[in-house]
Amino acid sequence: MAEETGLLSDLRRAASSIKRMEDISSEMEIPHEAAEYFLKGLSILELIVEKTDDTSNRWDLGVGYIKAGDRERNNSKLYRAKIFYLKAADLFERLAVSSENPAFRRTLAICLGRLGGLAKVNGDKQQAEEHYRKAL
Questions:
Q1: What is the model's pTM?
Q2: What does the pLDDT look like over 81-135, one tens digit per residue?
Q3: Measuring CA to CA, which residue among 72, 64, 105, 38 is closest to residue 113?
Q4: How confident is the model at residue 46 (pLDDT cuts 50, 70, 90)?
Q5: Which candidate, 69, 65, 88, places its Cα nearest to that of 80?
Q6: Can you tell me the distance from the alpha carbon of 136 to that of 124, in angstroms, rounded to the nearest whole number?
Q7: Residues ≥6 apart with Cβ < 8 Å to 40
Q8: Does 52 have pLDDT greater than 80?
Q9: How far is Cα 86 from Cα 81, in angstroms, rounded to an integer?
Q10: 37-53: b (≥16 Cβ within 10 Å) or e
Q11: Rounded to an integer, what distance in angstroms lies between the CA atom of residue 101 and that of residue 132?
């Protein structure tokens, strides 16, 4: 147990350092570098979620997936955006089932709305409608 605690502590420190590097890159207006740091931090958060059953870590990971999806969508990388939104939707759906916290359901609806928007842009009106209906 002490080894796992040490590992989690190391992961959290690494994530914090990477977040600082992302912030510095953003301040220096180096968006590509900031995006790389963001994705590295997201990978570390995925490891933390694997090692713990902490709802706040899963919430943070889901929000991170949404942000990653938004970044990819804004860069016209729609397939990559869809992957991140699907990951977020899956995570928030599991959180909504396991908790009565309405924020999980609201955030799931946001993910589904974004998936619907991507489907609409790609000309898949049926898929868009399915996502929108599920969001209700």
A1: 0.85
A2: 999 999 999 999 999 999 989 999 999 999 999 999 999 999 999 999 999 999 9
A3: 105
A4: very high
A5: 69
A6: 19
A7: 18
A8: yes
A9: 9
A10: bbebbbebbeebbeeee
A11: 21
